[in-house]
């Protein structure tokens, strides 16, 4: 998931079951990203490349999976 040699803070999150609820999938992705950054970098600040606030037409959805990508911000 994260190659700390390349960039210690870049990550991606894949959420399954997008067809059940896009809003739910967005919030699940936000939660997982926030949890990951807190656990690994001690901060909940995220600069999303593709994230929960991205316009729907720009989201990466494939095979009923939503993929977010972002960078954890240091505290």
Layout of secondary structure:
Elements: E1 10-16, H1 22-41, E2 46-50, E3 60-62, E4 65-72
Antiparallel strand pairs: 1-4, 2-4, 3-4
What tags apply to this protein structure?
27% helix, 4-stranded antiparallel β-sheet, 75 residues
Count of DSSP strands: 4
End-to-end CA span: 21 Å
Q: Helicity, in percent?
A: 25-40%
User: Uncertain segments of ≥5 residues (pLDDT<50)?
Assistant: none
Characterise the protein shown here.
It is a single chain. The chain is α+β, with helices and mostly antiparallel strands and 75 residues long. The chain has one domain (10-72). 27% of the residues lie in helices and 31% in strands. It is built from one helix and four strands, in the order βαβββ. Strands 1, 2, 3 and 4 form a four-stranded antiparallel beta sheet that branches. β3 and β4 form a beta hairpin. The longest helix has 20 residues, at 22-41. The protein starts with 9 loop residues before the first strand and ends with a strand. The model has no long low-confidence stretch (mean pLDDT 90).
Summarize the structure.
The chain is of the alpha+beta class. The protein has one helix and four strands.
């Amino acid at each position: 998931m994260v190659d700390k040699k390349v960039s210690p803070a870049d990550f991606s999150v894949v959420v399954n079951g997008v067809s059940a609820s896009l809003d739910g999938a967005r919030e699940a992705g936000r939660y997982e990203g926030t949890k990951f950054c807190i656990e690994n970098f001690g901060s909940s600040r995220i600069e999303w490349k593709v994230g929960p606030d991205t316009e729907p037409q720009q989201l990466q959805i494939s095979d009923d999976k939503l993929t977010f990508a972002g960078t954890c911000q240091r505290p």
